[in-house]
């Protein structure tokens, strides 16, 4: 049990001892059976929607997205409450589509029907036993359980996770375009008050250098620049690009090469004047431990669509924290539902010091969310309601394909 839960438990049940334990091997914390703390919440049914959000085209090294291919769920219980979860399919990275997520969600819902939502560890292990991988749709179900647990505790999710308030300032991302258009976007961002710009690269190393030259000139010296090659460079291209870009004061480079070139990362890290952040190379805490042991990265980007949700994200962060590797909270193209969960996670983990939480600002043509995280410029305010504090708008859901299991 996280420390923030102890007063709540004492009020309801008296002096009950904390039941969280430190797991061997990686110092990760898991919340044990929630049924030990509160009456069981039996899952009665799950509603599943294809949560398609129209977008202005957004291009990265591995492809262009025209819709946010999301899935939204509500896991209902006999306690009169439901938990919400959302995931964003990015097939060129995680190998899942909205269609595969929708179908797998039906199987997951059937697995959980009639079982205790508070037995979190058992429920998540059932998903892993049922299918290898499929981390994207697993993350929606994981999120719904955490939402339910925090709602039952009567506290915001970040407090349930042991967190406290801190400042969250997101970057804003420029997709791949011509150097001139990207520089114009950078100038517009600065006029809008953006202080941290993330730049997508990885199509062509020489053009990428020119892109950053023009962006730095347009954004000025005081703007923080981050770059993300999304696995687009070869080892030789990464050597060239990072060396050439060293003069432009880049904070870090995300995922310069394909994950199968991870064996080149230690050498690249030594050669690069720019720090290296692992993204697509880290799906779970085993990946993080492997890269850290090889001296292959300076930072790690945590995304629920890769980790399968909050439980594994906690383990990844713990491995990184134990080895003095700071983390970033990132995402795919989620709405403010999942983005709000990202905010709660970031507040709960001091080792998460970078925030790439602009997912719903990247060309979403509508905002189908009630409640949830709010932007004050590019600073984020996490809601204080119990649980995640965000939900999908019922009017928007009426136009989405739905299944109930």
Q: Specify the overall morphology.
A: globular
Report the average pLDDT across residues.
91
- Output the strand order for the largest sheet: 6-7-8-9-10-11-12-13
As a percent range, the share of strand residues is: 15-25%
Q: Sheet bearing the most strands, described?
A: 8 strands, parallel
Helix content range: 25-40%
What is the count of β-strands? Answer: 18
State Rg: 21 Å
Structural class: alpha/beta
How would you describe this structure to a colleague?
With 405 residues, the chain is α/β, with parallel strands linked by helices. 37% of the residues lie in helices and 23% in strands. The longest helix is centred in the middle third of the chain and has 19 residues, at 135-153. The two termini are 31 Å apart.
Key attributes of the depicted protein:
405 residues, alpha/beta, 23% strand, globular
Lay out the secondary structure:
Layout: H1 6-13, E1 21-22, E2 29-30, E3 43-60, E4 63-77, E5 82-89, H2 91-94, H3 98-112, H4 120-130, H5 135-153, H6 157-160, E6 172-174, H7 179-191, E7 196-200, H8 205-219, E8 224-228, H9 235-245, E9 250-254, H10 265-271, E10 276-278, H11 285-293, E11 299-302, H12 304-307, H13 310-322, E12 327-329, H14 336-347, E13 352-355, E14 369-371, E15 374-376, E16 379-381, E17 390-392, H15 394-397, E18 402-404
Parallel strand pairs: 6-7, 7-8, 8-9, 9-10, 10-11, 11-12, 12-13
Antiparallel strand pairs: 1-2, 3-4, 3-18, 4-5, 14-17, 15-16
Helix pairs in contact: 3-5, 7-8, 8-9, 11-13
